[in-house]
Known about the structure:
Elements: E1 18-30, E2 33-42, H1 44-49, E3 65-69, H2 70-76, E4 83-88, H3 91-100, E5 113-123, E6 141-144, H4 148-153, H5 156-161, H6 166-171, E7 180-183, H7 190-193, H8 198-213, H9 226-241
Parallel strand pairs: 2-6, 3-5
Antiparallel strand pairs: 1-2, 1-4, 1-7, 4-5
Helix pairs in contact: 8-9
Amino acid sequence: GAEPAxxxxxxxxxxxxxxxxxxxPAVAAGPAGTYYSTLRAIWTQREQSIxxxxxWPFGPIRAGGCVIPKRTALxxxxxxxxxxxxxxxxxxxxxxxxxxxxxxxxxxxxPLIPISLTVDxxxxxxxxKFDVSEDEAAMGIVVELDTLPEVILREExxxxxxxxxxDALRRISFRELTTQIILNLPPxxxxxxxxxxxxxxxxxxxxxxxxxxxxxxxxxxxxxxPLLQQIESNQYLLLFLG
Length: 242
């Protein structure tokens, strides 16, 4: 995909190993009932280009398709090829964005937005793609970021029946609604991870993430270094084993 011209891409070219994600609350419905989850929209090609989840076995997820964890499949009683109805909460993201920009949120009218998705794959592992500290269900329902608007607007008649402003939806840049910015060290990243001194690893990762996010003049970004937490845990294990 082409490089977007959104706020998240203000990161300097030297910190080009980053990718946006949109993560929003969702409720999924299947034969066994409903299940509270999240919708996680990813930019597959971009994530592949920065080496994020190199073992991830899929290319870009087709429009209308999704990948779900095994636990979600069991809760909904669905298999590959089945269709699930997913209601996503875009209001929370839009309201947060408007508030951060000092705008009025009273005019926002986006109740839960329903979309139909076909289960393309069911996974029981993260493939290095998601936070290893999360449980399996936290992976959520994974879709492609760039095709999400198309999938939403397929339900135009249903959206209008819910009095959702379809024209307003068309104007939304979904890359601008990014709720996460994932950074990955450029190769050879293993030279950083294999340092025996944890303090040096920590210093390198903190400096990289701090400088990488410095292009955003906002206080709403909450940095997280889940990989560092895992490395620290491994360090204590090595010390214990001696």
